[in-house]
Amino acid sequence: MTYARRAWVILWKDLLTEQRSKESLNAIVFFTLLLLFIFQFALGPDRELLRAVLPGILWLGFIFAGLLGLGRSFLAERENDCWEGLILTPGDKSAFFVGKLIGNVVLMAVVEALFLVLFGIFYNVDLWSTLPQLALVVFLGTVGLAAVGTTFAAMTADVRARELLFPLLVLPAQVPLLLGTVKATEAVFQGLPLAEVGHWLKLLAAADIVYLVVGILTFEFILEA
Amino acid sequence: MHAPDAPTISDAIHAQGVRKRFGGNVVLEKIDLSLMPGESMALLGPNGAGKTTLLKILATLIRPSNGVVRVGGYDVTRDTEQARRAIGLLAHGSYVYEDLTAIENLHFWATLANGRPERERLRAALAQVELESVADERVRTFSSGMKRRLGLARLLLSPPRILLLDEPYAALDQRGKKWLEEFLLAFKTKGGTVLLATHSFGTGLGIADRVAILAGGQIVLDRAMATLSREELHRLYALHTEDAR
């Protein structure tokens, strides 16, 4: 059986499960709405202040929403001991990580798309004219967030204090991603060409590769631990 | 990378001097166990005796602290992948996803095991465990017994050489129990090995060639069923499990 097919069947299962239960999606969408309201109340109508903090707000929203969804990535595997079943299947287990990761990226992309639309309306930001540049930054940031989140979600899936431990592990690891994405988004909102923040994009791409490789290499050990 | 040894011991299951410790708590001590192809054993023991731990060691899910364990002729700690190909485990959880339908669950596990499962085969496996009529219903709506039968259907898709069953009769109704006994007898006749663990005295004895009692983390009795009457076995079980408390 090919590696891709193993990853695909995990992705198929995760998306089908989420489409039916909508457990993660409903919670995250509601949470992002709340976040937008809270930021709006906290920052007030000062346009100058808002302009300065918009990239940070955007990425904090993505990260908080991501934490909520990613932390639940392996709950279905814990139910009815499916985790054991996955261990016992023959073949390369890192394909499960790849399948899970793509599923998480898809879920985060759906939430981020909705968040961006509402963000544009709430803060009166024209996102349409900068969409291609913004999409690139969001893609790079999302892959990194999902990779590190999927790895730590697997690590903490069987831990009693999972809800506490997961953000404690994930948030520090996301610092390089947060730095890169906020700086690059700042440039996009100011209408600057992405070449001016090329070094931040390189940092994002490098962080993505590191987190992906670490996830793929360690997943089998995490699963068996 | 270590190249797996060819199977050298003819036993389907071979455990020698197995010890398992969780921190300071010794769960299994001096376990010696041997089962030949085509042989079946009922492993009896009260709750907490270490049955599930022993089964998980044989299934490669837990590493023994000491001792040698070979399954299908392969060392479970060194040739884990090969040992896994020889076994089928029915554990407490049945390995089912609640938000998938019965047939989708089978499709998922069969894809991971074989690659490309045919829909007819999946339907046939469901028919064997009498779940064909609910093939397209979500498992969330199933009773515990139906989930158990779905777990068994998963094993039917690619029958292993060795079956490890942890409380397989739990939640099954009389019809389900009868079907399972018939299935296990047929499996044994074809040369399959069965190790069935249960705390419920009497269940599984009908298919067992041998019976073992696990109490206090040790095998305190391992005899051929033919040498024991039910009454004597019951007396010994009560005696040893009382001793173990």
Characterization of this structure:
The complex is a heterodimer of chains A (225) and B (245). With 225 residues, chain A is mainly alpha-helical. Chain A has one domain (3-224). Helices cover 82% and strands 0% of the residues of chain A. Chain A has helices spanning 3-21, 23-43, 47-70, 75-78, 82-88, 94-123, 131-156, 162-173, 175-189, 198-224. In chain A, helix 3 (47-70) packs parallel to helix 7 (131-156). The radius of gyration of chain A is 18 Å and the shape is globular. Chain B has 245 residues and is α/β, with parallel strands linked by helices. Chain B has a domain at 35-97 and 160-244: Rossmann fold. In chain B, 34% of the residues lie in helices and 25% in strands. Chain B contains 7 helices and 10 strands. Chain B has a 6-stranded mixed sheet with strand order 6-7-8-3-9-10, sandwiched between helices. A 4-stranded antiparallel sheet of chain B has the order 2-1-4-5, with helices on one face. In chain B, helix 3 runs parallel beside helix 5 and helix 4 packs across helix 5 (144-157). The model of chain B has no long low-confidence stretch (mean pLDDT 89). Classes of the chains: A mainly alpha (225), B alpha/beta (245). Chains A and B meet through helix 1 and helix 5 of A and helix 2 and helix 3 of B.
Overall mean confidence score, pLDDT of chain B: 89
Query: Biggest interface and its residues per chain?
Result: A-B, 24 and 28 residues
CATH architecture of the domain at 35-97 and 160-244 in chain B: 3-Layer(aba) Sandwich
Count of DSSP strands of chain A: 0
Low-confidence stretches of chain B: none
**Domain module tally of chain A:** 1
Main sheet properties of chain B: 6 strands, mixed
Q: Give the ordered list of helices and strands of chain B.
A: EEEHEEHEHHHEHEEEH
Given the helix and strand composition of chain B, which structural class is it?
alpha/beta
Tell me the major beta sheet of chain A: none
Helix content of chain A: over 70%
- Low-confidence segments of chain A: none
CATH topology of the domain at 35-97 and 160-244 in chain B: Rossmann fold
The number of helical segments of chain A is: 10
Overall mean confidence score, pLDDT of chain A = 91
Helix-strand sequence of chain A: HHHHHHHHHH
Bulk shape of chain A:
globular
Sheet-strand content of chain B, in percent, reads 25-35%
**Which value, in Å, is the CA radius of gyration of chain A?**
18 Å
